[in-house]
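Fold this sequence, please.
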Amino acid sequence: MTDQDLSKLSSFHTKNLRKIARIFWPQRISNEELLEHCQQESIEKILVERRWKWTGHVLRKSQNAIPRVAVQWKPEGRRKRGRPKTTSRRTAEAEAATMGQSWGTLRTLAQDREKWRDFVAALVAHGKKGSE
């Protein structure tokens, strides 16, 4: 998911929360206050948490399971010109690098569900760039 997609999704989320809470334009309230008022988390944190829960689920599957094969697959040969596509694996590797983890250690960490839950909670608390 690109930053532009995330921005659109976040604005959609806050716009709908404002409608539900009946907070209209004369009332000046920041998005952080809105999320507190509605007892919600930011959409960025929700997406990060769900992405990592899914990643743990996939990494615990057997080696031959299609989702795991798809996540671990690296195409051979030359790639197209331009910037590489943002994939879920590249995003996961970049976020794991902020916590000092590599893809290999993530595989072993995912096998222990308790440690994986702690890792996901720490990652969500650490936050994504610019989300705090």
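The chain is about 65% helix and 0% strand. The chain has two domains: 1-40, 43-73+87-132.
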